[in-house]
Structures are given as structure tokens and as C-alpha cells.
Amino acid sequence: MEETINTNEKLNFFQKNTGIIFCSILCTALWGSAFPCVKLGYELFKIGADDIFSKILFAGGRFFLAGIFVLIITAFLLKKFPTLKKGSLKGIALLGFVETTMEYVFFYIGLSYASSFKGAILNPTSTFMMVILAHFIYKDDKLNFRKSLGCIVGFIGIIIVNLTGEIDSQISFLGEGCLLISAFAFALGSIISKEITKVEDNPMIVTGYQLLIGGAILITLGLIGGGRLHFSSINATLLFLYLASLSSIAFSLWTTLFKYNPVGKISVFNFLTPIFGTILSAVILSEDVFKLKNLVALILVCLGIYIVNKTNDTKN
Q1: Is residue 7's pLDDT more than 60?
Q2: pTM, full prediction
Q3: How far is the C-alpha of 133 from the C-alpha of 80, rounded, in Å?
Q4: Residues 6+ away with beta carbon under 8 Å from 116
Q5: Residues 6+ apart with CB under 8 A from 266
Q6: H or E, element range at 147
Q7: Where does the pLDDT of residue 287 fall: very low under 50, low under 70, confident under 90, or very high at 90 and above?
Q8: Average predicted confidence (pLDDT) for the chain
Q9: How many CB atoms lie within 10 A of CB 285?
Q10: Which of 247, 248, 271, 289 matches a 20 to 30 Å C-alpha distance to 96?
Q11: Are 11 and 230 in contact (CB under 8 A)?
Q12: CA gap 162, 158 in Å, rounded
């Protein structure tokens, strides 16, 4: 397959370096903020550490509401109800299942059987997976030395920021295996979203319906497994609304970026998500964020992003 980008046409905001950097940082910062907010949400909704189905229900409700938010905004912008083009429903349903349902089901199962340190390390491997998938799918997004080096440098930054985690030698399918499947689901979902936007050209419509479908499946699984949510306070409700809002914004922008750019150019920014997660967790939990390891990790991740994207500077 070939990328849909025509370098002879005038670049839009999402293809220019300034737009790519701004939107990618915003996406990863929002996803990073989800780490402490989800943990806080478990406390406010009284969800136990081993209550997987309530966690799945919590995620499903958040994504379902996010899908509604995206479709409402899209309807306002289009001044009509956002309908799907003929032939795009199956692809969007597949995207919702892979990038929303599959990713989060395996993520929660994995975290229940593996340490949070391993979760923080294995989750960003989706970046490598995206780059490798793009190499075999797109003719003009091949893996090369510079791209490989950038990904490795960025991943070293992820390891450094998590150095205080406990490392154990035990490996299991339900733990590390499920975390890797979750990372693969996010990587595969990003590729699927790029292909779907060639048929359904409005990324917000794609995002809205995939979140709606994926969220509905998660809600169903959570309820079948006996999951429960308790909206016990105004703070719990406000936090839930924030999590839904950040998902609607981040996934809409991410899908748009993948529509207009090579996969390898955007995927490396995903390394910023755990960096933001660590920094924002420290801020929200009133911990010392100004640590040398955080600074070194951030520098390495930014260096990795620069290395990967340097070859594309002449195009923008």
C-alpha cells in the first residue's frame, strides 16, 4: 500500500511540523494525565485492585461517553447528524473492537498479573510495533537506521523514567503476554484507523463511532462479569467527564494525524505518554517531579523523536 499524502499539494495544519508537534504533544499529555486520573477514579468509584470487570465497565463508560462527545461536536461542525459512508461500518466496528475493547481488556488483565513497572515498560512497545507494521504495509514508510535509532533512544528514556520500579524475572501469558497483546492492539488500531480514513474521510466520524462501538462492547463485558460503578460524589462525576473528554480529544487528533502523515513520523511521539504520566502523577500526588531521571528521560525521548523526524524536514 502507498501513503495517501501528495507532497505536491499544499500541506494542511496536521501535515506541518508545527501542527504535528502541537497535536502529538497534546494527545500524549492527555493520555499521560489519564494514568493518575484513572487511579483516582478507582478510589472515588470504590473499585478494588482485583475487580477487573468493574475496571472494564469504568473504561467502557468512559469511551462510550467520549464517542457521544465526538459525534455531538461533529454534528455541530457539519450542521447535520454524522452518518457513515457505505462500506465503512465494518472497518470502524473492527477498529472499535481492536483499539478500544481489545486493547483495554488485555491491558487490565495484564496489569492484574504483572507489576506496574512492567506495564509502564511494555505498553510503549506499541511504538515499535507501529513502525514495523508500517514497514510491511506502506512503500514509503520503510524501517531504516535513523528510524530504528530514534525508537531505541526513546525507549531507553522510558526505561530510565521507570527505574524505581520492581523488576522480577517471572513471566506469564496472563501478565506480560496480555500487556504485549494490548500494545499490539493499539499499534494495529492505529494502522486500521489510517486505512479507514481513506474511505470515511472525516477522522472525527471515525473516532466517534469507534469509541461508541468499542465502549459499548466493554460495558457489556463489564456488566456480564458483574462489574459495578458507584457515582458517589460530584468529584467522581467530574473526573469521569474529564476522562471521557480527554479520550474524545486525544483519539480524534491521533486519528487525524495518522490520516495525513506516515505512521513512523507520528508513532514515535507515543513515547511521551509515559513521560507525561510520570510527571503528572507526581504533580497530582504532590511528589517531587524535578528529578534527574525525569529530565534525562524527557531529553532522550525528545531526541528520539527528533532523530526519527529529521529525515522528513525537507518535505515540510
Answers
A1: no
A2: 0.84
A3: 36
A4: 165
A5: 20, 24, 254, 257, 258
A6: helix 145-161
A7: low
A8: 84
A9: 11
A10: 271
A11: no
A12: 7
Report the alpha-carbon distance of residue 100 to residue 108 in Å, rounded. 12
Burial of 134 (0-12, 13-18, 19+ CB in 10 A): buried
Q: Compute the distance between CA of residue 204 and CA of residue 189 in angstroms, rounded to an integer.
A: 15
Task: Give the residue with greater pLDDT, 34 vs 247.
Answer: 247
Q: How many residues does the chain have?
A: 316
Could you tell me the end-to-end alpha-carbon distance of the chain, in angstroms, rounded to an integer? Answer: 22
pLDDT tops 50 at residue 314: no
Tell me the one-letter amino acid at 215: G
Angle at 26 between CA 103 and CA 29, to 5 degrees: 65
Residue 273 Cα distances to 130, 157, 276, 278, angstroms: 15, 12, 5, 9
- The amino acid present at 115, given as its one-letter code, is S
How far is it, in rounded angstroms, from Cα 122 to Cα 269? 16
Distance of CA 125 to the CA centre of its chain: 12
User: With 60 as the cut, is the pLDDT of residue 80 above it?
Assistant: yes
